[in-house]
């Protein structure tokens, strides 16, 4: 009961624009530096280099969402373009993740698509891949609609499917052949659109992982759950799914030992590295996901 209350408090805080605005001025506080790599491209690139040297590949995620002006969206687009250029110059092994609300989706979908095309043109120039992050349920359908439009021109773009949504299995079937990042989900969603019990989410998660793998599609399994990871390994072995058809993904700052262990065993292991000063919403959602994360954050806070 207490865990559920805690989860709701953090999820509510993640959407609070006043707190989010204030957090940009605070700097990385409350243990956020444990899970956010820094506030500049240069610092983020150094983190990628360090992880590449350990056999881990990466994805950079410039934090930010729900912008309210075209100017902010253009600025975010330019920042993502510069991030791709910096990765290209540095020669690091890292993709890019973007949130379309940061690129103006709520202002004008056509405007957002223009910004996405700028980013994808740059990614194509550097032979890189861009992952469109999935946001809350209200943005799900339009995200998939835009993905399909972009895929008509670009093959270096994919998205994320969240297992707690009832629609997830059907979406995965319809997105056969498109590289997908499969996650459990980290937003507060209504019982009318999403599973509420962990057991149900876990079952649906394995269901969509198996569906995408068996379809021959490239599959990114984004989970820190060692039970899920063990099931995926067994399933891939049983069905003779080659290791170059899937990868495991974890977030920067979490289960580092397991990340290194999987990489040493020959699995592709990708670390999602968030960076930037718009860190508050992301950090609150991480605290909401698991009660253990709160203790982890407090440990980081008091050790400063």
Please describe what this structure looks like.
- This protein has 304 residues and is an alpha/beta fold.
- Helix 1 packs antiparallel against helix 11 (280-289), helix 4 runs parallel beside helix 5 (109-125) and helix 7 packs parallel to helix 8.
- It is built from twelve helices and eight strands.
- It has helices at 2-14, 17-26, 41-53, 70-90, 109-125, 140-151, 168-174, 198-214, 226-238, 256-264, 280-289, 291-302, and strands at 57-62, 94-98, 130-132, 157-162, 180-183, 219-222, 246-251, 269-275.
- Strands 1-2-3-4-5-6-7-8 form an eight-stranded parallel barrel, surrounded by seven helices.
- It starts with a helix and ends with a helix.
- The longest helix has 21 residues, at 70-90.
- The chain is globular.
- Helices cover 51% and strands 13% of the residues.
Note the gap between the termini. 31 Å
Helix/strand order, N-terminal first: HHHEHEHEHEHEHEHEHEHH
> Mean of the pLDDT scores?
88
Strands ordered across the widest β-sheet? 1-2-3-4-5-6-7-8
Largest sheet: 8 strands, parallel, barrel
Q: What fraction of residues sit in β-strands? A: 5-15%
What is the alpha-carbon Rg in Å? 18 Å
Q: What structural category characterises the helix and strand content?
A: alpha/beta
Show unreliable segments: 298-304
Helix content: 40-55%
| Count of helical regions | 12
Number of strands: 8
- Molecular shape: globular
């Amino acid at each position: 009961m207490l865990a559920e209350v805690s989860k709701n408090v953090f999820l509510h805080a993640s959407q609070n624009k006043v707190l989010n605005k204030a957090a940009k001025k605070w700097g990385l506080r409350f243990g956020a530096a444990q899970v956010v790599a820094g506030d500049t491209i240069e610092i983020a690139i150094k983190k990628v280099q360090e992880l590449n040297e350990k056999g881990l590949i990466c994805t950079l995620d410039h934090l930010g969402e729900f912008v309210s002006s075209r100017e902010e969206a253009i600025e975010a687009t330019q920042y993502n373009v510069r991030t791709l250029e910096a990765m290209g110059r540095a020669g690091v092994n890292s993709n890019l993740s973007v949130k379309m609300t940061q690129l103006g989706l709520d202002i004008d979908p056509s405007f957002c698509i223009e910004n996405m095309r700028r980013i994808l043109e740059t990614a194509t120039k550097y032979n890189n891949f861009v992952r469109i992050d999935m946001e809350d349920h209200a943005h799900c359908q339009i995200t998939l609609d835009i993905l399909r439009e972009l895929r008509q021109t670009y093959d270096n773009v994919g998205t994320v499917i969240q297992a707690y949504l009832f629609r997830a299995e059907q979406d995965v079937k319809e997105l056969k052949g498109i590289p997908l990042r499969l996650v459990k989900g980290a937003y507060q969603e209504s019982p009318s659109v999403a599973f509420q019990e962990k057991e149900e989410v876990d079952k649906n998660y394995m269901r969509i992982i198996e569906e995408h793998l068996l379809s021959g599609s490239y599959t990114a399994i984004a989970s820190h759950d060692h039970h899920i990871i063990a099931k995926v390994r067994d399933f891939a072995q049983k069905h003779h799914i080659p290791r170059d058809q899937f990868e495991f993904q974890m977030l920067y700052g979490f289960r580092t030992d397991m990340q290194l262990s999987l990489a040493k065993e020959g699995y592709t292991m990708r670390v999602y590295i968030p960076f930037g000063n718009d860190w508050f919403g992301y950090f609150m959602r991480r605290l909401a996901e698991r009660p253990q994360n709160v203790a982890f954050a407090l440990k980081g806070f008091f050790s400063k």
